[in-house]
Specification:
By secondary structure, the chain is α/β, with parallel strands linked by helices. The protein folds into 2 domains: 60 residues, no CATH class; 110 residues, Glutaredoxin. It is 43% helix and 15% strand. It is built from 7 helices and 7 strands. Strands 1-3-2-5-6 form a 5-stranded mixed sheet, with helices on both faces. A two-stranded antiparallel sheet has the order 4-7. Helix 1 runs antiparallel to helix 2 and helix 2 runs antiparallel to helix 3. InterPro entries: Thioredoxin-like_sf. This is Phosducin thioredoxin-like domain-containing protein.
Length: 215
């Protein structure tokens, strides 16, 4: 009988979000994991179980391939307004950062989202320059930057404006944003032993600096 714990361990490695950071050897490594998993399943005495197990893994690999091809695991910039609308409406979970390149706090938010995107492979992370999407900015009533809006099943589920909910501090930890997105339901709990980032309280709170689009 195949070792169920071994199969579970290999499957976890295959599907872990951090694998989406894609180095040059990642696909070869993925193939090696699948080959080992396939061999483990084939050791099962029941042919039906073997066939079913291999089918599940093959379908999951295909699904992961499709997600990679749609830029999951990356933090990318979208310049076309129609494409932004398409992504927000079709993705299961999507995080959109509405930003301005001349605003320091947007750059700070960028760095944190870029760290989280490879970790949460099943959520699409994008940024959009507000001047490229005037209709959408007006439609979503975006007035203050930085602004991060969470979409779940094509619906705006939550939004984060400025840094007030992140300690009102330019030096906030990535974990603070991670926890905020987790509570919004736009990211799922990572595989393994939990978040790799730790929340550290800061005593260097600063006056909130915001970018008002109406100014």
């Amino acid at each position: 009988m195949a070792s169920h714990s071994k199969i579970a361990s290999l499957s976890s490695r295959l599907l872990e979000p951090n694998r989406s950071s894609r180095d040059d050897n990642s696909e070869d490594d993925e193939d090696a994991i699948f080959a080992e998993l396939e061999a483990e399943i084939e050791n099962d005495d029941n042919p039906a179980v073997r066939e079913q197990g291999i089918g599940v893994i093959k379908r999951e690999l295909e699904r992961m391939k499709e997600l990679r091809e749609s830029h999951h695991g990356t933090y990318s910039e979208i310049t076309d307004e129609k494409e932004v609308i398409r992504i927000s409406s079709r993705e299961k979970r999507c995080v959109i950062h509405f930003y301005h390149s001349n605003f320091k706090r947007c750059e700070i938010m960028d760095r944190h989202l870029a760290r989280l995107a490879p970790k949460y492979f099943h959520t699409r992370f994008i940024r959009v320059f507000v001047e490229n999407i005037p209709w959408l900015v007006e439609r979503l009533s975006i007035k203050i930057l930085p602004c991060v809006i969470c979409f779940v099943d094509g619906v705006s589920a939550d939004r984060l404006i400025g840094f007030e909910e992140l300690g009102n501090n330019d030096g906030f930890e990535t974990a603070a944003l991670e926890l905020r997105l987790l509570n919004a339901g736009v990211i799922g709990k990572p595989n393994g032993n939990g978040p790799v980032y730790n929340v550290v309280a800061s005593s260097n709170a600063e006056d909130e600096e915001v970018f008002d689009l109406d100014d």
